[in-house]
Design goal:
The complex is a heterodimer. Chain A is 29% helix and 13% strand. Chain A is of the alpha/beta class. Chain A has two domains: 66 residues, Alpha-Beta Plaits, CATH 3.30.70.20; 340 residues, Aldolase class I (TIM Barrel), CATH 3.20.20. In chain A, the strands form five sheets. Chain A has an eight-stranded parallel β-sheet with strand order 6-16-15-13-12-9-8-7. In chain A, strand 8, helix 7 and strand 9 form a beta-alpha-beta unit. Chain A is globular and about 80 Å long. By secondary structure, chain B is of the alpha/beta class. Helices cover 32% and strands 15% of the residues of chain B. A six-stranded parallel β-sheet of chain B has the order 7-16-15-12-11-10. In chain B, strands 1-2 form a two-stranded antiparallel sheet. The N and C termini of chain B lie far apart (58 Å). Chain B contains 16 helices and 18 strands. In chain B, strand 11, helix 10 and strand 12 form a beta-alpha-beta unit. Classes of the chains: A alpha/beta, B alpha/beta. At the A-B interface, helix 4, helix 9, strand 14, helix 11 and helix 12 of A face strand 1, helix 3, strand 2, strand 3 and strand 4 of B.
Chain lengths: 510, 472
């Protein structure tokens, strides 16, 4: 790997280690209540194989139930469950109302809990938590691999897991610029200093080092604390040009132009005044406390020719970097992609309209531009028809929540994906949607408040992200094996392995 | 350059505590009084505000939807005693169209007059019926029009109501034969309509508030002739019996409305006899026969049509059952008028089911020149679209939000705030699309994406399987 950084680079070990919930009370789907009738006989400790009931040696009382480990009705229905076996009838099991407060149709409570389990253990979540898709009733949530549907497809002879390759090259132009190789088909999305805490930024970077992948600065400048990870950082040139300098462009391997963001297409970045602390303002060369609205679009780019000039400028400043172009998903996104290819981009990054954001008008999040599920096949097919599909890397983002979303996006035609919200969820985000104002995130992830960010250490956060990525990779390898493929690259554009769930049984066409 | 159109919003808190979305419902025994939840964990001071209210219901009003369900208290409680839950009363608000979240955002917009901004991505269902199966387009790089809503370029939201001749006709010696057109320009593509049902004790005050809000918003307020005043911002809805006693009003207003009926041409003639300058509009249900009826009336000289749908934006069919949504029905009407070559000569106003700012933009994309807002104005005043209201036309007695007791000033400002927030959102959408004025959005389906089309293009080649087979 060629490094362009003049800063000593740190390494991070890719190793799965337990990283339990950072709160005192981990949250589970079910809740076990123990009434005062409990005689601390320890029967529940004996019968529960999931570790819900604990009575350490020498303790007179049983500890408060570790009910986040409870698998629920599946176990409670059996005669061997703690509820059935308790001689005092002191135990009851029910859905945890607090867990039901989390999430929404796109990120269901189950998806969040499953993600947390993956981030805590580094491996698949238990089956009582849905970890594959949400409940939004469309897009990825209405797609299944054919092998997931009973009776639709016979199994294929599977290669063993060790043979399966999930890595990806990002430079397909053969233009003499260096290759950027990532070990997983996933890298981290742009989150600016200001929108998220420095701990979040550093953890993302360190996890990217561990997985030989990338993270992205977003448009809020390039904090010096990121320098030890320069080789795995993508720096963004966005319409606000906050903190963009020649030397920040020269130190990285990939530079990303952000034309638009999926959550607020056509609007430009928003950072509300409360989150613009003195440190953030210094980085952005702005006045603290003022809301910062990035303009839209780039005022220097009004045509594909201007766009090429823009890319040439970056390529001139950094002769060894790759250039990624991040665009949103309008009707003519396929034309935009082709234009970007001819302008010289190595990566075209489509950000779908249901993507994450630190702050965006609600009307934009829901209504403007198309969800990524529609854009990927549209662009993929068009690039194929134009005969340039093999010369550009197509990256999808905006609503990639799970390993299955990654796989479905690739099957629809993307080379790889960018994730954002999934990483924040791994760090403990409950998607309460309060990132934008005041002191920001109450859980200290998307906050710039010096007190709130102390709720999470960089070490813990790094481990959570490494773990989540490992769990995802295991799931990807399992699916690829199931499909008889030995590389993630074989899956690209193989929409024939997918099926779409239809509401009308009569419409079925096998 | 004339003054830019600007809506003066003023924060106006609600009059009553609202039904919050989340609440602490379960506090198990054995609290150690460490007060971490109150002092350390809760960023929003929810517990302190709750306590203040419990001591004194007349304490300064804090909305009780402050809990964001961040679960910091639940997860941080020293003894794990706390639970937060979704308030079932919240989930019970409204109905399947006027969803609780729509009511909540409308209340918030009416409080603050600001465009709702939040963190995290879109949280709802992937798509839905009606307006939820349309996405508006945006421009990537090639359509420069603006510098953010905070920027310099002006995006116009004004629309014209009235006959627009397609060409001018002259005598051989150059004198103009065409009568000068009488266009009524309003600054917002939304007029304030009569509520779909009667609210107890809220007749006159509510009408006054609508008229005052229309004046502030530089738009129009429709009201029954009995409640109308001689005010250029009022649009009286007059019946055959009203015309004779409404001369004073008809002379003062710029637009009047009559219900569609077999004698509608005659009624129109009577109104125009009182005030030849008034723009006359015909109010009729949107339905399968609407396009034909519009063509017929247009030939008789009527140029402005107010098409009404039900509470959920659906056609009202002859048999009283709901029909298609505005999205489909209005596109058909618009297309038919385009084909007949008279679309630019008539103005279409659509009402019913316009619940959010996005519905205004999407109805215009589907072919309306402007919309009329009805139920959303009641929601601005605290209406919960509760069971009383769901039966069409029934009287809300008693109104749980006590809308009848709201003062005119309060009601006016809440309506102005809501429309101010809608206006800002319309500008966001127009800006993203690269459109400088809302007039150009009418029928502009090329600037929208319809679920049927993009799903076919994207997933048409995928094998289809019945949802039942995966138990999803």
């Amino acid at each position: 790997m060629t490094t362009t950084s003049d800063w000593p680079q740190e390494t991070v070990v890719r190793e799965v280690r337990p990283a339990p919930d950072r709160y005192r009370n981990a949250l589970g789907k079910y809740r076990i209540d123990r009434s005062a009738a409990c005689a601390s006989c320890g029967r529940c400790v004996e019968v529960c194989s999931y570790g819900v009931h604990v009575k350490p040696a020498g303790y007179a009382f049983t500890l408060r139930p570790q009910d986040h480990l409870c698998v629920g009705p599946e176990c409670a229905a059996t005669a061997e469950s703690c509820v059935a076996q308790c001689p005092q009838h002191a135990l009851t099991m029910r859905r945890n109302p607090s867990a039901e407060c989390m999430g929404d149709p796109r990120w269901s409570s189950d998806l969040i809990l499953a993600n947390w389990r993956q981030a805590a253990t580094g491996h698949a979540a238990p089956p009582h938590l849905e970890s594959r898709q949400g409940a939004s009733g469309g897009g990825f949530d209405s797609m299944r691999f054919k092998f997931e549907v009973p009776g639709l497809e016979e199994p294929v002879a599977a290669p063993t897991a060790a043979e399966i390759d999930t890595s990806l090259d990002l430079n397909h132009r053969n233009d003499g610029r260096p290759q950027a190789h990532i070990d997983i088909p996933v890298y981290g999305g742009g989150m600016s200093f200001g929108s998220v805490s420095i701990h979040t930024i550093l953890a993302k970077a360190r996890a990217a080092v561990a997985w030989n992948s990338f993270t992205c600065t977003g448009e809020g400048g390039y904090p010096d604390r990121l320098r030890p990870y320069d080789d795995h950082v993508i720096t963004q040139v966005a319409t606000g040009l906050f903190g963009v300098r020649e030397d920040t462009i020269q130190r990285v391997r990939i530079v990303e132009f952000k034309y638009a963001q999926g959550a607020k297409p056509g609007l430009g970045g928003h950072l509300l005044g409360d989150k613009n602390t003195p440190a953030v303002a210094r980085m952005r060369e702005a006045v603290a406390g003022n809301a910062l609205f990035s303009p839209f679009p780039f005022h220097s780019v009004y045509s594909v020719e201007d766009h090429k000039k823009h890319l040439d400028w970056i390529k001139e400043v950094n002769p060894t970097c790759l250039v990624s172009v991040k665009v949103s998903t309008p009707t003519d996104v396929d034309m935009v992609a082709v234009g970007s290819y001819y302008a010289g981009a190595h990566i075209i990054h489509l950000d779908g309209s249901y993507g994450g954001t630190g702050a965006a008008p609600d009307i934009a999040k829901k209504n403007i531009a198309m969800p990524i599920e529609f854009a990927i096949p549209k662009v993929h097919k068009f690039l194929v028809a134009e005969g340039i599909r093999e010369k550009i890397t197509l990256i999808a983002s905006g609503g990639i929540r799970t390993a299955f979303d990654v796989l479905k996006a690739i099957a629809l035609g993307a080379d790889g994906v960018v994730i954002g919200t999934a990483e924040l969820v791994a760090l403990g985000c409950v998607r309460c949607a309060s990132c934008e104002s005041g002191r920001g995130c109450p859980r200290g992830i998307a906050s710039t408040d010096p007190e709130l960010i102390q709720q999470m250490s960089v070490e813990w956060a790094t481990q959570r992200l490494i773990n989540m990525q490992n769990a995802w990779r295991e799931q990807m390898v399992e699916v690829l094996a199931r499909l008889g493929m030995s590389s993630i690259r074989e899956l690209r554009g193989r929409s024939d392995v997918l099926c779409y769930l239809s509401e009308e049984p009569a419409a079925e066409v096998a | 350059m004339p003054d830019r159109y600007h809506i003066h919003t003023v924060p106006t808190p609600p009059r009553f505590r609202r039904i919050g979305k989340f609440g602490n419902v379960d506090w198990r025994e054995d609290c150690s009084r460490c007060t971490n939840c109150v002092k350390l964990r809760c960023l929003y001071d929810v517990y302190r505000h709750e306590a203040a209210y419990n001591r004194d219901p007349l304490a300064p009003l804090e909305t009780s939807d402050e809990c964001k369900a961040c679960l910091s208290c639940v997860q941080g409680c020293t003894k794990g005693l706390l639970s937060v839950s979704v308030n079932p009363e919240f989930l019970d608000l409204g109905d399947e169209y006027w969803k609780p979240d729509i009511l909540l955002t409308t209340w918030n917009q009416s409080d603050a007059g600001k465009i709702p901004v939040s963190g995290a991505g879109y949280r709802g269902r992937f798509h839905g019926p009606g307006f939820d199966s349309i996405w508006t387009d945006m421009s990537e790089i090639v359509r420069p029009t603006r510098d953010g809503i905070h920027g310099r370029e002006y995006i116009s939201t004004s629309v014209d109501i009235g006959p627009k001749p397609l060409r001018l006709r002259f005598t051989p010696d150059g004198a103009m034969l065409t009568e000068p057109s009488r266009l009524l320009e309003i600054q917002l593509p939304a007029i304030l309509d009569i509520p779909a049902w009667q609210v107890e004790g809220a007749g006159g005050e509510l009408a006054k508030a609508r008229a005052a809000a229309a004046r502030e918003l530089k738009t129009l307020a429709v009201m029954p002739a009995a409640e109308a005043t001689p005010d250029p911002f009022v649009v009286p809805l007059v019946g055959a019996d009203d015309i004779a006693r409404s001369h004073e009003i008809l002379k003062a207003v710029r637009m009047a409305q009559v219900e569609d009926c077999p004698e509608v041409a005659e009624l129109a003639g009577q109104v125009l006899a009182v005030n030849p300058q008034v723009i006359l509009s015909v109010r009729m249900p949107l339905g399968p026969a609407a396009a034909g009826r519009i063509l017929e009336l247009a030939r008789a000289g009527i140029r402005v049509f107010h098409l009404c749908t039900d509470l959920h934006g659906r056609e009202r069919l002859e048999n009283g059952r709901p029909g298609r949504h505005i999205k489909d029905a209005l596109r058909e009407v618009h297309g038919r008028l385009v084909k007949e070559g008279i679309r630019d000569e008539v103005t279409l106003i659509v009402s019913g089911g316009i619940a959010l700012a996005e519905h205004m933009a999407k109805a215009i994309i589907c072919g309306a020149d402007l919309v009329a807002v009805d139920t959303a104005l009641l929601v601005a005043l605290g209406c919960r679209v509760c069971r009383h209201a769901r039966g069409t036309g029934a009287s809300c007695n008693p109104c749980p939000a006590e809308i009848g007791s709201a003062s005119t000033e309060y009601a006016t400002q809440r309506i102005v705030n809501l429309m101010g927030a809608w206006h800002s959102q319309l500008i966001e959408v127009l800006g993203a699309m690269g459109i400088r004025e809302v007039r150009r959005l009418r029928g502009e389906v090329g600037r929208a994406m319809f679920l049927e089309d993009i799903a076919r293009e994207a997933f048409g080649d995928l094998c289809r399987v019945s949802r039942d087979r995966v138990n999803a």
